[in-house]
Specification:
The active site is at 361 (for fru-6p isomerization activity). This protein is an alpha/beta fold and 366 residues long. It has 13 helices and twelve strands. The structure holds 5-amino-5-deoxy-1-O-phosphono-D-mannitol. 5-amino-5-deoxy-1-O-phosphono-D-mannitol is lined by residues 58-61, 105-107, 110, 113, 156-158, 242, 246, 362-363.
């Protein structure tokens, strides 16, 4: 059932070209400039006229929510608040019938997320679900939704569910932006065309598994890691750190790169590996300065860069190249090497990657 892979996690990482394509299938036809999500049909106007969107989720799904914040803000010019479901449910959140809540959950069974939905519902908000498991409790508790078609995810560490969530949220943000009129026709068409190329670009990142394993073998026994990114790569930094923590038990922190100066930079020395998300997007120049700051303090740097980058490889210790894409689609590619890096480090340390200690696949108690 592992299809020849040593672990479910590795199988699921390698399934991503297909799970991303499956999450777009029937919804997107770039050559016809067609984009439609069935579950959104009766809610598109409501979303398009929303003053704000509140996202509730936990863990990796919360990271997908942070990506959505950026996408809806950038493309649709809608204000988004991303909440840990566990915090939201125990506050006294200001929420009413004008609010639109997006609940994100792979399993559809996360207790805190379900409770957050019930709370928002009781205040009259409209709830839209992004779930992977068909017929799950969250899928049933929401007013409408769009499934991620990632297929069953067995490994406790979420991989293909995350990229499927980001795919569906990207389709939603583009559809809502188009309806709101905040997107030019040129950009709309360009994004749809670029989205269709993502599965084959993910394939190209997966082809780098062997060199990523090499890097993993150099850092197998590191005791700490910092992951830094800006903009859309900030949630990816958080996700990379979470993956490493949960399956290798190495302490790792994700930070917005510019926050480093406000504290974490004190941690940097030759024993502190720093993973930089340094793709060619609108934060590139800033990230280059952040890399210089880390190198000046002898930090060892692994950088995820865009193919053809001629500058960063000369500055850092290791680079992993990913194909170029439109800025807003970057997380779908930049997260892949981080999944592989954590996987190989955990395997080299002899960890039980599919069932890490103390963790369950779905957290059905609070
Ligand atoms: O099933 P859900 O998406 O609601 O689960 C949320 C988190 O429990 C989950 O993403 C968790 O953080 C994963 N183990 C991360 O890899």
């Amino acid at each position: 059932e592992k299809g020849g892979y040593e672990h479910f996690m590795l199988k699921e990482i390698f399934e991503q070209p297909r799970s991303i394509a499956d999450s777009m299938r029937g919804r997107l036809k770039a050559d016809e400039a067609h984009l439609q999500l069935g579950g959104l049909r009766n809610y598109l106007d409501k979303l398009a006229s929303a003053n704000r969107i509140v996202v509730v989720a936990c863990g990796t799904s919360w990271h997908a929510g942070l990506v959505a914040e950026y996408l809806f803000e950038e493309l649709a010019r809608i204000n988004v608040e991303v909440e840990y479901a566990s915090e939201f449910r125990y506050r006294n959140p200001v929420i009413n019938e004008n609010d639109l809540v997006i609940a994100i959950s792979q399993s559809g069974e996360t207790a805190d997320t379900l409770a957050a939905i019930e709370l928002a519902k009781s205040k009259g908000a409209t709830i839209f679900g992004i779930c992977n498991v068909v017929g799950s409790s969250i899928a049933r508790a929401t007013h409408a939704g769009a499934y991620t078609h990632a297929g069953p995810e067995i490994g406790v560490a979420s991989t293909k569910a995350f990229t499927a969530q980001v795919t569906v949220l990207t389709l939603m943000a583009i559809a809502v932006a188009w309806r709101r009129g905040t997107l030019s026709e040129e950009l709309y068409r360009q994004l749809l065309i670029e989205l269709e190329t993502i599965p084959s670009k993910v394939e190209r990142v997966l082809a780098k598994a062997a060199p990523i394993r090499e890097i993993a073998s150099i850092f197998t026994y590191s005791r700490n890691f910092i992951y830094l990114g800006r903009g859309l790569n900030f949630p990816v930094a958080l996700e990379g750190a979470l993956k490493l923590k949960e399956i290798s038990y190495i302490h790792a922190e994700g930070y917005p790169a510019a926050e480093m100066k406000h504290g974490p930079i004190a941690l940097i020395d030759e024993d502190m590996p720093v993973v930089f998300l340094a793709t060619k997007d609108n934060s590139y120049d800033k990230i280059v300065s952040n890399i210089m700051e880390v190198k000046a303090r002898k930090g060892r740097v692994i950088a995820i860069v865009t193919e053809g980058d001629a500058l960063i490889p000369g500055m850092v210790d290791f680079v992993i190249e990913i194909p170029n894409t439109h800025d807003v689609l970057t997380p779908l590619l930049s997260v892949i090497p981080l999944q592989l890096l954590s996987y190989y480090i955990a395997v080299l340390r002899g960890r039980n990657v599919d069932q890490p200690r103390n963790l369950a696949k779905s957290v059905t108690v609070e």
